[in-house]
Structure formats: structure tokens, C-alpha cells
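Handout, page 2. Input:
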Amino acid sequence: MKKMSESELKEKLGAYIAPEGLYEKTKNMPFLGKVTCHTNQLVAGSWEELLLDYDVGASGLADGAWIKATFKFYSDWALFQTGDPKGANYVSAEYQAGPCVPGQSPATVQSLKIRFDQKGHERPFQKAVIVDIVDGYIKPGDHIIIRLGDKRAGGPGTRVQTFVEKDFRFRCYVDPLGTSRFSTIPGDIAMDVVAGKAKKLVMVASRAVKTGVSFDLRIRAEDNWGNTCWNMGGKVQLTATLKGKEIYNNSVELSKTGWAVAKVRDIPVNSVGELEIKAIIMDSPGVEESVFYVNVDDALQVSRLFFGDLHVHSDDTVGTNDT
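Output:
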């Protein structure tokens, strides 16, 4: 809507009385307000306190209004609770008054009521933290602070989802008039959920190969939740034994940029038997050693055996990340 000058206002309204500067203040605000957050990155599976700050827009919030902070239903983020401030995953909401212009009355809201509903909004943004405005209105420029994993009473915070995701989103909605008709507050809260520190090595290859047929062995470093680590680097020492005799000893570097992975193709497969392959990250005693077995078989009727899971979803459907 057009922002009118003082002369245009007087032409339309005639003589009028209003708090000084209120019209200009609200006209410069987003109508439905905005939501901000203090972080843009979280470690998968970590315990955190997360603050969502809703700056009430020019619409204000009437008695009985609602706001929702929603996220997608397939996240395994720990479920929030509102009954035990000292417990894990406690969520709270508090009101903070913004400044009044001269002649403006303060808000009259008496309390905020907060709850969590696993199906509190439309799919895919079904999981919802819901805040009700109780007994009074909230004026433009005031704030509602939602604390996910409120630690102030001694709780451990909230356990973040355990898998990595680029641009995990909280999408917020507001019903400013209390009519149960919600509008999206512009600007999602987006943050990257990233892998934590390496906890173990994992090797993947064909479980059985024909004698003399080379195979690819892929090695990756994973965090405590099974996420592949990122931008890590590090030297991996590899050994392979066949019938108790060492037939291979070499080292390979994990990628220093992107996924912490490496590929090996030169493990010998000229003799029948079960290869035992061991991998360990040098100078990282906290990372578990990995063991993998490959059966080398003359009688195998194909070169190598493969397996796979072909049922996947990306964020084009109801999954995470792109394809």
C-alpha cells in the first residue's frame, strides 16, 4: 500500500488524532513481521538452545492470535515438550515489549501459551511449535521469543536432527486476527545441519569378486550418527590379509574438501579366499578402526556382486537435499 504524506492523510481523514510517528513507523515495517535466528549452522545430533525472534509486523496481533514455527515432518529432531523446564527439549515463549511512540498505549497481552503438535500444520511442514496470544493484543514492533531447548532452568537443550541437511528450514506462520486463517511470514529461517567430528571409518565394496577381477573399495569417515564427515582430510592406513598372510599395505588420503572419502583399486585378488581389509586413520586415536571382508571366488559366475536401495526421496518430493 502507498505511504501517504501528512497532507494526503489530512486530505483523506480531515482533522485526526494519532500517536506521533505511529503511521510512519508501521508503514516502514513488514506487514506480517519478520523472524530471525542467531545461528545458521548446527551439528547433527548436538544439544542446542535455539532462539527464534519474531518481530511483530504492522498488522499487530489481536487477542486470540496465533503464530507457528513449523518444520518438515520427516525430521528426527527430538520432540519438544512444555511441561518440565529442567528437562530435555523444553520449549518456551516470552513476550518482549518494543518502544512506544509518543502517545501510544503499550500492549495489553497477559500471557503467551505455547504447545507442540506433530501435525500442527500442513504437510510437509507438519511439526509445529504454536504460540497463542492470551487476553490482550500485541502492538507492532513488539517481540515474541521462542526458545527451542530452553536451558535457563538447567535443561540440556534440544537434540538437533541426527542427519545432515542443507538449508533445514523453520517456516513461520501468523494468524494476526485470531480467525484461524494463517499467512506465511516472509523469509524462512534456513540453516545447514552438518556432520560432527569423525567417530569411525566405513568401507564399502563388492562383498564377492571373481578371482583376478579388480574392485573399487570406497572409504569414508563418519560421525557418531553415521553422517559422512566434510572438509576433513587425513591419512588412512590400509592393510589386507589373506589366509593370515599380509598381501597389501598402503595409505590413502581422505578428501580435504567436500565429503571425507577415498577410493582404492589396487588390492590384489589373484588368489582364492577371504580378504580381511583393515583401515585406520593415522594420528586420530578417537576414530574407530574399520574391518571389511571380500570373498575372492573362482566359481563366481559374474565379475562382482552389487547391492543397492533404489527407493529414495529428494526435496522435490518429501525427502531431504537435492538429487
